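So, who can interpret the following?
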Amino acid sequence: MRSKFVGLSPVNIFKPFGLGRAKAVIAAVSGGSDSLGLLFLLKDYLSTLESPPVLIAVTVDHKLRAESALEAENVGLLCQKHGIMHCVLSWDDPKPAHGLAAAARTARYRLLVQAARDAGAGFIVTGHTENDQIETFLMRKARSGHCEARGLAAMSPRSLLEGSVELARPLLTVSRQALRDELTRRGIAWVDDPSNANIDYERPRVRLGVAAEADGQEVLEQIAQAGAARERDNAALVEALADPATLGVDAAGMMFLNADCYAALSPGARQLFSGLLASIAGGRRFLPGDGERRRIERILSGQDAPRRLTVFGALIERGEKGAPHRFRRERRNLPKLDLVPGQHIVWDGRFCFFNSGGRSFEIAPPGRQELIDFLKNSGRDIESRRCEALLISPALYEGGKLAFVPFLPGAEWPQGVHIERHFAIFDHVLPGHDFALAQAVEARLGRACAEIS
């Protein structure tokens, strides 16, 4: 069908995303032109399906402006007029003095994911446009300082949030002006958020500055080239990871990278591989910066003298005389977290705990003497290298005392407590660019935590 939006086909825009297989779909709607254009295009598309999912518009009130509550209420009235379910979620947490835009974005997606889970919705759909895509590229290019950064592939049309909810951005090839023209024809008014013109924030500065002067088509071509380069590096790693000899892991998460397999890769693929392993070992959600990845690659390739370096919370050691390169967590800034009944918690970005039992624990790394005494009292003799691995691993404390140490052969473990490996770089926000790479890494490293041998 053709939409009431002249020139825009909902079927062409939304069909590739497979929204029809969902029970419900969340549309993120702020009241601006992009999100309202998305909402009504999406409504038109879902009406063509034989068994359409429920459409739920969700407005996040960030509580950053006095007018925001009224604007959210007006979105609700518009949705009511058109028979669309609507709810408002509020970001009520204290606002940071610095990094407000990033904190607001994190809070927004957290609230949207929770709304999706509560509604049983498989998708969150956002109104990011071609203009946003161009701005994202220009922002990332300015930050990276060169034209080879992976982030220059810009936003992926598809992503996976928190390992379970799909994020769809179907309007990345649609201009903001096209949406505004169609909203005007339909008689639907939108709100212009004044923060979008506040040059204290990075995106408005880019939007009103370099993006306004940029050749949009040329930028889109550069995005396509960056995306192709990212896919090539990813494909090289996927191929390498298919060989079990390339990468190994022990129970506590230390990874062993075959030096010959690593050397056979292109420089770009080597930088990606070692940076990725540093992020996994350090429990980080992002890759190290371009400069840090190049530094790691130079050291592992023997071009720089040091054999060891610490990056992103990971201790990296170059293998000598055919030995594998090693990646493990450094023994600093390891957290202490409470684990109460019914809780699901991520520890240090590396391990995920589920407590379906009735006891409460504290998760923390064991102290050296505590661990020595624990092993002695349990009649265990563990070699020094294995002890070092346990000192950067989580243990369970009960009543202030070390009670359970995972990964020990035949060790006691409390009923109802489950532990598995967590990949922070993939498990929170996974761009569609990296779906195949994430699958290859998980297939090689696994989620299950084995015993130390």
